[in-house]
Design goal:
Elements lengths: L1 H10 L20 H11 L1 H13 L2 H6 L5 E7 L15 E10 L4 H67 L5 H35 L23 H11 L1 H22 L5 E9 L11 E8 L9 H67 L5 H35 L4 H8 L1
Length: 431
């Protein structure tokens, strides 16, 4: 179509473009990779998960620690009649200290459960990070498509304006119809409407990207060149296996299963008694000339799981069920992931074939049709409506072609996301 456009310019039949279009933003002099770096360092969602993980990192030591010892101050066997400390032989002023101990193995299991919670919190961070990378990548791809569509609309409007000049020339010399002029004007107005709609969509995409990366405005975002991803050569089975190994999501599910397995073991430890050891020192006053020794006492107490059928056994059963729930969720997530991978692999194949069809078939044929129609119209062998219809058809094919390219790259990005590839590393290697 570029050759035809140049021919119209040379023939003086198209209105020349008035100056170059002004950029919507100043040059950012950056790249998509650097945008992802900024996104990672500024997005509040990632900060939130990092703070949650920092908080969870404090729990293992807490869970493993003993309860604080208890200090007691007592008065024992004080006479209610005299309230004197030397009237009764067993009257004492006592100070004691006691320490509770859980059943053997409980502290270690408590630490392990807290460490499992920490792992889950830590795995959420890279999973969220990769999801944000994917979302940003898709918005950038959409922005790239919108900019191409805008360029196509501008070029198509220039060509339609050239057709209008031809129609006016013929009408002025009595060889054309007024309805041809009006039809061309309507088509040009339609292009103006589409251009405004695209400007709105472009502004919305830029705003979304600026907000995601906490940028004050969209400066330089229109200048970023997106990397082009290649076809994924591996099959569905291999990709599904890679996803289970690579994705933090599945490591998070594995940690959750381990967590409830450890909580079940911890609940079983509740069937064993907890212990409490105490020592008390009792000071006795002398009774006149009679010396009385101070007393030292020691105690050992422990819990007896008398109500285990309605307490401990129920807790054990609950954690077993939660472990099974986590395991089922793990399997469901793997199945869902495999389904998504299969859909994306098929989508990638179809979109790739469609793009080839547009590039090697539809677009060259439509371009030749427009050129032939224009040549025929100049010698009155085809009507103006046919010429305009063929040009609009070529324009629509160009838009559809660019949309297919967008869908193809989007499918490849989403596939990378589903199999657990690091999208920031992919962007760095592909630029």
């Amino acid at each position: 179509m570029r050759k035809f456009f140049i021919a119209l310019l040379i023939a003086g039949m198209a209105t020349p473009a008035t100056g170059g279009e002004q950029d919507l933003s100043e040059a950012w002099n950056s790249s998509f990779y650097s945008y992802l770096q900024r996104l990672e360092s500024t997005h509040p969602g990632i900060r939130e998960l990092e703070e949650s993980a920092n908080a969870a990192s404090q729990l293992p030591d807490f869970a493993h620690s003993l309860e604080d010892p208890m200090v007691s101050l007592n008065v024992k066997s004080l006479s209610a009649g005299t309230f004197g400390f030397d009237s009764e032989p067993m009257t004492q002023k006592q100070i004691g200290i006691s320490q509770s101990f859980p059943a053997p193995g409980k502290r270690g299991l408590r630490r392990t459960v807290a460490e499992d919670d920490l792992k889950i919190a830590e795995f959420k961070i890279p999973e969220k990070r990769q999801e944000l990378y994917k979302e940003a990548w898709v918005v950038f791809l959409k922005l790239e498509f919108l900019l191409k569509a805008k360029e196509s609309v501008v070029q198509n409007r220039i060509i339609l304006d050239g057709f209008l000049r031809v129609a006016l020339s013929k009408y002025n010399v009595g060889k054309g119809l007024q309805e041809n002029v009006l039809h061309a004007e309507v088509m040009i107005s339609n292009m103006d409407v589409r251009l405004l709609e695209l400007e709105e969509s472009i502004g919305s995409a830029v705003s979304t990207l600026a907000v995601m990366a906490s940028m004050p405005d969209g400066t330089g975002l229109l200048d970023i060149k997106m990397p082009t991803l290649k076809t994924e050569a591996r099959g569905l089975d291999d990709l599904a296996k890679v996803a289970v190994v690579n994705r933090p999501l599945f490591k998070m599910f594995e940690s959750e299963v381990e967590k409830f397995e450890n909580k079940t073991a911890l609940a079983k430890k509740d069937l064993l008694p907890n212990y409490k050891v105490g020592v008390t020192y009792g000071q006795r006053d002398d009774l006149g000339a009679v010396k009385r020794d101070d007393l030292l006492s020691a105690s050992l107490s422990f819990s007896i799981p008398v109500w285990q059928s309605s307490r401990q056994q129920k807790k054990i059963a609950e954690n077993r069920m939660l472990k099974q729930k986590a395991a089922s969720g793990y399997e469901a997530a793997k199945q869902t992931n495999r389904e998504k991978i299969g859909v994306l692999v098929e989508k990638e194949k179809v979109r790739s074939k469609l793009l080839t069809l547009y590039d090697e078939g539809l677009l060259p044929q439509a371009e030749q049709t427009v050129e032939a129609s224009f040549a025929a119209y100049r010698v009155n062998k085809v009507d103006f409506l046919t010429l305009v219809t063929n040009q609009v058809a070529f324009f629509n094919y160009q838009i559809k072609r660019d949309k297919e390219e967008f869908e193809l790259q989007k499918a490849r990005v989403e596939l990378k996301r589903e199999i657990g590839d690091d999208l920031k590393e992919v962007a760095q290697n592909a630029r």
